[in-house]
Amino acid sequence: MNQGETEMAEKIPSPDAGRGKILLMVGGGIAAVKIPELIRRLRDAGFELQIILTKAGRQFVTPLSLSSLAGQKIYENLFSLTDEAEMGHIRLSRESDLILVAPATADMMAKMAVGLADDLASTCLLAANKPIALAPSMNSQMWLHPATQANLATLRGRGVAVIAPGSGDLACGEVGVGRMAEVPDIVAFCQTILAGGDKPLRGKRALVTSGPTVEKIDPVRFISNRSSGKQGHAIAAALVAAGAEVTLVTGPVALPPPPGAIVIPIESAAEMLAACEAVLQRSAIDIGVYVAAVSDWRVAEIFSAKIKKEKSAGGTVVPPQLRLEETPDILAHVGQHRQRPHLLIGFAAETENLIANAAAKRTRKNCDWIVANQVGGAGDAVDDRVGGVFGRDHNQIHLVKASGHDAWPVMSKTAVAARLVAEIVRFFRG
Ligand code: C5P
């Protein structure tokens, strides 16, 4: 994939004034070595930082390196006479807009779950009245242990946000889940949380399509597209989290429905079109995000019984002749609709000429933005996570607008969704 472009046309929207203070708590895990890079990226994105380094975190990074990058003093000691003269643990937790724990160790999560307060970080967490986000990092057995999972459920139940760890090589030499989320994913997550109020899209209505469509040939066979629905469902979930009222029209996928969204399951492109039409007729839609991999073709006539293998007089099997016809282009239809969503976003999976094809698609389908990603093709696999987009957890996209295009770094599909929603929030703020 276009390495030069990934190298970053990275433009991250700045947080609004007064909503950009992060209290970063650095825990004791090998992923702490990524924290200097995280500090740089958070500062590039316009966040102000205060940093607490735990005793265990100090084993992996030095206070001097963190303070040089942050341009701030590093807090370490609950019983510091100078800091505690001003009730430092209360002040630190009050002065921030978000508390970010990265890496969040199993021990730290366990302490949070039971409410221990035996060092500066845990005391600030207990005293906190601000949103808290955790970026866990640990060995997969520790992550999957019922104790850790129970603590996680407790913390989630209290509204703590969890930036899910990824899978891959772990520092201990094992392979599995437990790698701290990548730095751009953590930055995107913070941007969404701080995008301006907890629910910046409250009062907005969104319609999202996701997954493949399934076009029947006969009762047992069909034409479809490769699509897991992961990206579309993540966008629906991120829109719900931002306060939008979301209707998700989805083809068959093996994913749970995003909590809080109204889900309309469909199979064929015709059913997807009818569902979208009904939603548009019912109420004005502010945001349309068309992520579904709609099949371009269907058979002109569906066979009512299973097509049998028939042999000719010569004994050879005669394959059936299927006459195909085009399916309706739902996005193009919505682009011309009397009730066109105020902001209309399409997707484009391209194997070549990514930007040119996406830009042409934007105009042809009358969308505002196209989210483009390259699929297949030689030279695609710059990063092994990008080698295939279908069904994977990561994506690399270019956001194509009338004014130009931006290349985003490789991100999890959840982080792509969070960042797209941050862009949507900025669009509506004007
Ligand atoms: O398949 P194509 O590259 O044209 O898809 C581009 C965009 O159009 C995607 O957002 C997809 O969801 C949408 N689309 C659609 N109905 C179709 C084909 C594509 O809504 N029949």
* Largest sheet descriptor: 8 strands, mixed
- Could you say how many structural domains there are in total? 2
What general outline do the C-alpha atoms trace?
elongated
The CATH class assignment of the largest domain is Alpha Beta
| End-to-end C-alpha gap | 32 Å
Number of strands: 24
What is the residue-averaged pLDDT? 87
CATH H-level homologous superfamily name of the largest domain: CoaB-like
Proportion of helical residues: 25-40%
Account of the 3D structure:
The chain contains 15 helices and 24 strands. The model is unreliable at 1-18 and 377-387 (pLDDT under 50). It folds into two domains: 17-193, Rossmann fold; 205-298 and 321-429, CoaB-like (Rossmann fold, 3-Layer(aba) Sandwich), CATH 3.40.50.10300. 32% of the residues lie in helices and 23% in strands. With 430 residues, the protein is an alpha/beta fold. It has helices at residues 3-6, 35-44, 63-70, 81-84, 88-95, 106-114, 120-127, 140-144, 146-157, 183-193, 230-241, 269-282, 330-335, 354-364, 413-429, and strands at residues 21-26, 48-53, 74-75, 98-104, 132-136, 161-162, 166-169, 175-179, 205-210, 214-216, 222-224, 245-250, 262-265, 287-290, 297-299, 310-311, 317-318, 324-326, 343-350, 369-374, 394-395, 398-401, 404-407, 411-412. The strands form seven sheets. Strands 13-12-9-14-19-20-22-23 form an eight-stranded mixed beta sheet, sandwiched between helices. Bound molecules: cytidine-5'-monophosphate (C5P). Cytidine-5'-monophosphate (C5P) is lined by residues 209, 269, 290-292, 294, 327-331, 346-348, 361.
